[in-house]
Amino acid sequence: MSDLANHFGGGAGGSFFAQLAGTLPLFGVMAGALFAGSMIERFGLRQMLLLSMFVFAVAGSAGVLLDAPYPFLGARLLMGGAAGVMTTACNSLIAIYYRGAKRARMNGLIIGAGAIAGISFVLIAGFTASWWWRAPFLLHAAVALAFLPAVLLAGRVPTLPKQTENMIGNLRRLRPIVPVCLVGFAWFAMMLMSGVQTPFVMALAGIGDHRTIATLYAINAASVSVSSVLAGRIALRFSSNTVLRASFLLLAAAMCILGSGTTVIQFAIGLMVSGVSVGFGLTAIWTWGMRVAPHDIVPRALGAMTTCLYLGGALSPFLSAPYEAMMGIRGQFFGIAATTALVVAASWIVTRKSGVLAAT
């Protein structure tokens, strides 16, 4: 990031452009996922997956050649849009081909693989950047090429029916996923807030060694992977509501541990608990969304879900800002954890009362 800031002139202006380069793909994902469903229904799953992989490879690798800031930022935005389409297409395939516990197990495997890939590529990017700061951009093309044979050689991909309803009619049909979108929005906001703010708490505790911090986040990624892989078995024993409430409470507990952290061991435990909550929570959210989405507009429903989840992540700094202003860097962790616990308790009470009323 510092090399990129220096490339764009250094100082406040260079730092601003470098931060935009890191956040614009997030908005690209939201935009791409929002329109991905309609494009998939019109042109087909495999076709849109191949096209989005091509755009991801070209736009993501464009940083090797582009020097001007605005074309560079445009390429980053386009790369994020392609990632949004790829995410929607892959999730749609899972929703179409899998049911019940098998669907939960597959979602868990995907999230676990994503966590491993995320930490692996951070390490690879750091290694390649040591000999040329532009080299990590080429990883986008490497990823697309690595998965191209699997997409080309995959079996028959189902053709989705083309929708004849107008836009308003289709929006009405997405109502079943509105609760999923709201819960996912809140979940991503909490998850990103914890991930972004934890390094600042580490700095307050005097933990600044890059290798130590990388090891701590590797522990987090490992716990995400293990818990998400186990999520399929958990889904056989507990309802999605129970798993979601437990994951929110686990994340609240992790925030309390991280907010009070003063030693490496404490942060390791906090990030481990956080990883477990993410593995269970994300798997439950995606499985829930796939279950309630109307089967003939699955891509649109899951694309809308993706947009809402990433919107929560994008707005996370703004949502946590009032807590930080009132309670400080450490205090915000406890404030958000307390709010989460109260909301989970209220939802449990409302659900239980509704069940009692229905029984009578």
From TrEMBL:
Q: Which residues form the Major facilitator superfamily (MFS) profile domain?
A: 1-355
Where does the sequence pass through the membrane?
16-36, 48-66, 78-98, 110-131, 137-155, 176-196, 216-236, 243-261, 267-289, 301-319, 331-350
Q: How does it sit in the membrane?
A: Multi-pass membrane protein
Q: Which GO-annotated molecular functions does the record name?
A: transmembrane transporter activity
The record ties this protein, via PROSITE patterns, to: MFS
Pfam families membership: MFS_1
Cellular location of this protein?
Cell membrane
A cellular component term (GO) from this record? plasma membrane
Q: Which InterPro entries match?
A: MFS (IPR011701), MFS_dom (IPR020846), MFS_Efflux_Transporters (IPR050189), MFS_trans_sf (IPR036259)
Give the highest taxon in the source lineage. Bacteria
> What is the name of this protein?
MFS transporter
